[in-house]
Amino acid sequence: MNTHFKNSKKNTAILFCICVVMIISCAGNAQNQSAENDTAILENKKTEVVIKKELLYDQHTLADTFPYQKTFRVFQWDKIHQKLVSIESMQQNPVNWGTLQNYKNENKAAPVVKNARNDEYHVIIDSLGTERDQSAPLYSLIDTIAPVLYGIDGSLVRIIEFGNTFSKIELIDVDGEWLVPSKYLKPLDNSLVFSKVIMIDKTNQNIATLEKSDAAWLVRSMNPVTTGRHNPPYQKETPSGTFVVQEKKPEIEYYVDGTTEIGGYAPYATRFSRGAYTHGVPVNLPATAMIEFSPTLGTVPRSHMCVRNATSHAEFIQGWAPIYETIVFVFE
After folding, report:
1. Within a domain: residue 106?
2. 87 Cα distance to chain centroid
3. Beta-strand pair 196-201/326-331
4. Distance in angstroms (rounded) separating the CA atoms of residues 267 and 328
């Protein structure tokens, strides 16, 4: 991130703000900072990003820094800043947004890419580790015979040119321009300006929701989550990347591993990629009543690709995040 200072006073002011942010992040519980008073500022060229805490959901709220076993975990505000700056920068001019779609291979399984290989789950992946299943094929601009990479279902893209057969796109997380068969691409509203984002941190097992106001990005919730576990053959990590909320369901049923037997359900499910949802605490049959919270939330990955929340927080997300208008960032 290249930062330009117009004069020494501005340089000093910006450095002071960054120091304040670092102090707040490190102090955490010891400082017992109020969620309503913390403000962080970063500047990138012409793009200024201000983050301010004004919670709409205030249950199970975590501090900026919170204890875990014999150490601490944090909200990575520096990474969150960078992602907001990238979106703000792209939205300074009109953008034709789109999302890749191939849920359950509804648009046909993507062709095998160049340099494909099998992973520990015995599925085909590309050179970056993206699975063929439920993905769109990405071709170079000069070769539409064999794809080079896979673009996972739900990924946010910038549409450069939409065509009848192929469209030219730019991914948020992969450099370069690519051709994708247009049947895998859903153009979003031409007037769309993203104002709501969900930040999922797999390293620290937490989630933050933010909403753009006239002057700042407002933090609406800060909560613990459980993300997907890498544990072949049934459990998979939550995919990293930049996605768009795809659909919402009152609940989703899940199978007992290795069977087609229904094992239970997860309430308030909001899908953002493939079978990856944010949802509430799972309810194992024969129990049927919803469970608000689990002590396993915010500890270690143990889910099957999904992002497990407190049930009331999953309900909040579902009511707060519009379909095709909310970005989901999943990062380490």
Report:
1. yes
2. 13
3. parallel
4. 19
Query: Could you tell me if residue 265 is inside a domain?
Result: no
Total domains, the chain: 1
Domain of 107 in residue numbering reads as 97-187
Question: Structure tokens of 253?
Answer: 């049923």
pLDDT of residue 48: 82
Rounded-to-10 torsion of CA 279, 282, 285, 287? -100
Distance of CA 252 to the CA centre of its chain: 20
**Which pLDDT score, from 0 to 100, does residue 27 have?**
38
Among the listed residues 100, 107, 78, 257, the one whose alpha carbon sits nearest the alpha carbon of residue 180:
100
Q: What are the residues whose beta carbons fall under 8 Å from the beta carbon of 91, sequence distance 6 or more?
A: 193, 194
Does any domain span residue 142?
yes
Assess contact for 18 and 7: CB atoms under 8 A. no
Question: Mean pLDDT for each consecutive 10-residue tract of the chain (332 residues)?
Answer: 38 38 38 42 59 98 96 98 95 95 98 97 97 98 97 98 98 96 97 97 98 96 98 97 98 97 98 98 98 97 97 98 98 98
Cβ(239)–Cβ(305) below 8 Å: yes
Say how far residue 261 (Cα) sits from the centre of its chain: 30
- Whether residue 173 is contained in a domain is answered as yes
Instruction: Count how many residues are written for the chain.
Output: 332
- What pTM did the predictor assign? 0.86
| Residue type, position 7, single letter | N
* CA gap 287, 104 in Å, rounded: 29
